[in-house]
Write a structure and sequence with these properties.
single chain; 501 residues; Aldehyde Dehydrogenase, Chain A, domain 1; Aldehyde Dehydrogenase, Chain A, domain 2; 7-stranded mixed β-sheet; 6-stranded mixed β-sheet; 15 helices; binds NADPH dihydro-nicotinamide-adenine-dinucleotide phosphate
């Protein structure tokens, strides 16, 4: 261990949280939670059944009737208090993220987390969103305005790779707009969401405004279909999104979908190659073991610098320590479970048959001691990847990078846009005009030029195509949770029927 003090690996008891209730046994049975770091069961997680979901929706609806009338300044105050509590409890939130997902344990030492940033940002919006005044055309005059109103109960479903971050990207915006929420995290990662429920309670939110029910896909389905749920906000895979869309179709229920990606990093020959490779390797085979939706898991490098990029990327990847995410020397922690490790290694095994050249990695890492059962995969780099092969097209969601060469700008754009996904796009060049041209032409909802950060709260994030639709972050992230009503007021007698002007 290079860290000075050992960090506790104790888990916390998980409950179904409805209003003020903490329920230890749910109607959906129990999940024996397996820790990705050790491969051992570390908790018994109650799973919500349809009856629990039904009750949570009713409690949330009851709370909504008050919360929608709560002055926006009070909603702001509570959200700001919650953000402060996130800061005060940052070490514990980081610790639980490491236990949940195997994310590197990085206490931020006073720097607010991404989650705290989102909460604070939407606290600010709570009392600042203004309506539009619209001109009237009736002969006697007419005045019109818009009202932005909450939906009611929002069903929030998040996946396992960053449950607290995902909750923070959705829930504060929903609450700021006057909705209440029923959250279903994945049973694979229950600890962070449980702790968030504690912090919400401590912040003083009225009971029922925020409810958390760990559960399986069946619980998610019950939540989506519940008649009191007026909008769904989902983060997960495209297959699940498609079934949620089908479930929503009968009642024409709206939903936001934040889905997967196969984002390309386009490296032109005038770029700072070392910076591009350091950043590209970290966000594909390092941090979170590649399990990030918007990571640049494809690199497209211009022919003249291609060999150098392949060599540099693999060198950086080889330098990464694979191991215990509580160890501060570790860069690449475990993947989430055995099924994920098997799936990732399957894609690695098949890639050479489609022409990809394995440059480094490619194997399961077997560590000793208490990590012996953990799910570790070597940072893996493939070169000469056919953009239309399985590796070039499908989201691996593990520490595997695919590198392909391109000729010129138009070839780069064509290859970057050659998947059904459209989440992130990354551009590296010192030619500003080229950067802006390429940014405009990428089929992606979120473009980063020369290392611009991910998940900046004031910039809307969200994908196109198979990566979903709808936004989180920015004003647009708030508007996802508002319904706009137009109100017209006629002055004096108006004509019996009036259309437009
Ligand atoms: P899934 O789509 O399998 O699961 C996501 C959530 O949906 C889980 O809570 C899951 O519960 C639940 N669920 C499963 N079936 C249903 C159903 N029929 N109705 C309602 N809810 C259901 O997620 P993955 O494991 O595939 O997650 C990884 C994916 O998430 C990747 O594609 C990744 O890119 C994407 N992602 C996107 C992000 C973004 O913001 N764009 C951010 C993070 C990840 P359970 O776990 O119990 O099955």
């Amino acid at each position: 261990m290079t860290s000075t003090e050992p960090v506790s690996r104790a888990t916390i008891p998980v409950h179904i949280r409805i209003g003020t209730e903490r329920i230890a046994i749910g109607g959906g049975g129990v999940h024996d939670r397996v820790c990705p770091i050790t491969g051992k069961v570390d908790g018994s997680i109650p799973l919500a059944g349809p009856h629990d979901i039904d009750r949570a929706c009713m409690v949330a609806q009851e709370a909504f009737l008050q919360w929608r009338r709560t002055p926006p300044t009070e909603r702001r105050r509570l959200l700001l208090r919650l953000a402060d509590l996130f800061d005060e409890n940052d070490d514990e939130l980081s610790r639980l993220a490491t236990l949940d997902v195997g994310a590197p344990y990085v206490p931020r030492k006073g720097h607010p987390s991404i989650a705290a940033n989102y909460i604070r940002y939407y606290a600010g919006w709570a009392d600042k969103y203004t309506s539009d005044v619209v001109a009237g055309y009736l002969p006697n005059g007419e005045f019109g305005y818009t009202l932005a109103q909450p939906y009611g109960v929002v069903g929030v479903i998040v996946t396992w790779n960053g449950p607290v971050g995902s909750i923070a990207m959705k829930v504060p915006a929903a609450l700021a707009a006057g909705n209440t929420v029923v959250v279903k995290p994945s049973e694979l990662t229950p600890y962070g969401p449980e702790f968030v429920a504690d912090l919400v309670e401590e912040a003083g939110f009225p009971p029922g405004v925020f409810n958390v029910l760990p559960g399986s896909g069946a619980a998610g389905d019950a939540l989506v279909q519940h008649p009191l749920v007026k909008k769904v906000s989902f983060t997960g895979g495209p297959g699940t999104a498609a079934s949620i869309m089908r479930a929503c179709s009968d009642s024409v229920k709206p939903a936001v979908f934040e889905l997967g990606g196969k984002s390309a990093s386009v490296i032109f020959d005038d770029a700072d190659i070392d910076a591009a490779c350091a950043h590209g390797a970290m966000l594909s085979v390092g941090f979170l073991a590649g399990q990030g939706c918007s990571f640049p898991t494809r690199v497209l490098a211009q022919e003249s610098v291609y060999a150098g990029v392949v060599q540099r990327m693999s060198k950086v990847a080889e330098s990464y320590v694979v191991g215990d995410p509580f160890d501060t020397a570790t860069i690449t922690g475990p993947v989430i479970n055995q099924a994920a490790a098997d799936r990732i290694l399957g894609i690695i095994d098949r890639a050479p048959s489609e022409g990809a050249r394995l440059v480094t990695g490619g194997n399961r890492v077997h560590l000793g001691g208490e990590l012996a059962g953990g799910y570790y995969v070597e940072p893996t780099v493939f070169a000469d990847v056919d953009p239309y092969s399985e590796l070039g097209q499908s989201e691996v969601f593990g520490p595997v990078l695919a590198i392909t060469s391109f000729r010129d700008e138009s070839d780069a754009i064509a290859k970057a846009n050659a998947t059904p996904y459209g989440l992130g796009g990354y551009i590296r060049t010192n030619d500003l005009g080229r950067a802006l041209r390429v940014a405009e032409q990428l089929e992606a909802g979120d473009v980063h030029i020369n290392g611009a950060g991910n998940l900046m709260v004031n910039r809307p994030f969200g994908g196109w195509g198979l990566s979903g639709h709808g936004k989180e972050g920015g004003r647009q992230g708030l508007e996802e949770f508002m319904r706009i009503k137009g109100v017209g007021i006629a002055f004096g007698e108006s004509p019996l029927i009036s259309f437009g002007s």
